[in-house]
Amino acid sequence: MSHPPMQRGEQETAVVPGQRDGTAPDTAGLRFDLVARAPEVQGRIEAHLHQQCGVDTQAVRDCFIWNGLQSEVDPGGELDVEDVFLRRAGEVFEAQAALTPDSVDRALLCLWVHHSSVRAWNHTYRVDLLMKCMLRFRDIVRRDWDLKARPAPEVELALRLCELVRLEIELEDCLKTGSQLRYSEALDMVIGSCRGLLHDAEDDAGPVGVYVRGEVAVRREYHVMLRRLHRALVAQSAGKERERFEVRKELRTLVNTWPFSSVELSKMNAHRQALERLREAHADRRKQWMRIDEGRIVYLFPFGVNGIDYETVRSRLKRSFGEGAGPVRPSAAIDHFTYHADIWEPRLEPSKRFDGLELILPKVRLTIDGDTVEELNAALRFSPMGVHCLRLERTVEDLYPSGLHAAMFRAAREHGTVEVSCEGTDRTWDRLARFARDLILRQLPEALAPRGGEPDAPVGIHRGRSHVLIRVLRASERGREFEPPSGDEDRPLVQDGNRLLELVGSSVLLHSAPDAKESLWDWIRLADDHSRKIWNQRNEGDLLISTENTTVIAALDAPNFISGDLEALAEFTACLGGMMAAWNHQLDAYRAGVSEIIAGYSLPGADRAAQVEAMKAKRMQMLEFESETRQVIALLHSPGLLRSPSNAAELRRLLAVKGIDEQLASFSERLNEVMADQSEATLQRWEVDRQQRVRDSLTAAVSALSVCAAISIWQAAGFWTPFGWGAATVVVAAWAAVYVSARWVSYQGGPWSTARFLAGFPMRALSRARTGLARARMRRIARP
Fold first, then answer.
1. Which residue has better confidence, 28 or 668?
2. Structural domain span for residue 655
3. Looking at the record, which segments are called Disordered (predicted)?
4. Residues pairing with 199 in the sheet
5. What are phi and psi of 566, to 5 degrees?
6. Could you tell me what percentage of the chain is helix, strand and coil, using 3-state DSSP and rounding each to the nearest 5?
């Protein structure tokens, strides 16, 4: 990141331009020197705001920590908390802005917001949310302080310093799009903003003006150096670097002159190392560069569905073509998405097949900049096995390492802001991951929701990690990156994976898709291989590369239909993550449900019979789940899933190198723990208690009846008086009633609990009657 860290423990000597005579700037009533980049200045600003104005500085700083709010509002991380985040931040900003009485205090509050936003920038990739929060602060204070009618120069300077940070964040956001055009334009804009702010701050001799000049002067030099490094990288990559940039010498001079932070130094050093590595690669004429002449890239967003079976999913998704189906409406439906792929065994039971419904979606377009627009074919796939995914693919041509690295970044949540659009809707998204999230977690649950008499079982959708699949069809050797196309027919084609890995730029294929960007050429600094490779899948030289979130298939001398089989297996393996996510959520939900039932059983007035039935239903549901999951796990490792034994062997190797076997083993261990938990013992104990209560009640009743029968016999025989025997009968009956009632009261947890149970009994009986009638009606409907 291109910003000063402002973190604790940062020991740096501040250099403030304009204060070379050793005198401290005029503090205008402040009790401390406001010196830019001094280690203690932020603590003093915080103390002044808190002690002199009563500002809750901690609350202001927390307004920029969105991920903490995510854990409060949505612990599962499934939803977007942007609206809640901005609303809470706005309330805090309004309250704290009202506590600052004069312009200096208000400027200090702006400087504290500047520090808080920079601090948050060190720890979040959601820079879009951070920038919106900064804009919310700016708009609120301009309105509440009425800066238009009562301008305050020091407040304006402090607000413009915050705006400069926002432009720097936008600069990083442009870097993460991989666009040279946008990054260059953003760099120029930041440098221009620095110059304008410095010019306007020259006329302010107050402490805020001095602080702003000192801070912005350092940032201007930093961004000017970044621009020089970036331009040198562009020129070197294009083979047009005429005047050699002595980067080490100039960086040393710059570092000795200006008090750069450790973050700024690391960013400049990252650019320097990229430039030096790029020069080394171009200087060695023996090295050839990789270019993907033709290939395909597939972005996979796997997910799993809980609560309904495949047939229900299929029938409800047929409604996706109707009105009100959501912003992304399918254009076609295919009942068998593996219809043309004969590698899967067709004689499997329908519930065990990796086949099923495919909803063809309109084309998705990614507008990166004015020159780059990528068009993706999109589809949603559902299979009876529970392996579902959103699939987006496009063909690639003439792709050099920089372009390939940027393309691999597209599916990441950390990607920069672009325009994602879909045919048939006016709505746009700011990144591909956001489009996938809205489609899977917002529109799809609406399509799967029950309607009109359907069982209202809750439907849960759980996402796995996104995956990028790259299939290299043709690759060639080049003298350098972005080499002109002249003489293409003379360039040697890459024949196998061994030669492919010898080319400059092949490190992009060996590493996972990135989650951050240091520079547009940071790929050349990637460390040695951390991937796992499968060689010679079919032919000698065939290569399959597996990382945490990518799979690369390079069967360069094989026909396309051969490498297509490998692609199908790789897609299947990558999509298992969604199924595993749903499985693990099912285990967590079972444990939570059992704990809730056990806690409810002990509550006063609880319907313990209903709790026992609920526990039985949970246990039966888990037994069915165990049977289904173990069948799928066994099927994954059996030769019966695929038609060809060689393909089955390839799948087993893929399961091993992708870590699926480890995940399945971990899940099986968790499943064994759940099935061996205390729920069965608890259920047995509850059942024993219930049976003992019934036996005691029956024993008391039978004993009372026996005594009453004996009394009748003795009375008929003429022993004692009728009044005496009548009184004895009443005593025995009363004893039996008291004993049975005592057992019931003890079972329910006390007299008051029993009273509440009896009061709620009519409503429970009515509810059970309605449920029974509904089940009978559904059985009549389902009966042929």
1. 668
2. 576-680
3. 1-27
4. none
5. -65, -40
6. 55, 10, 30
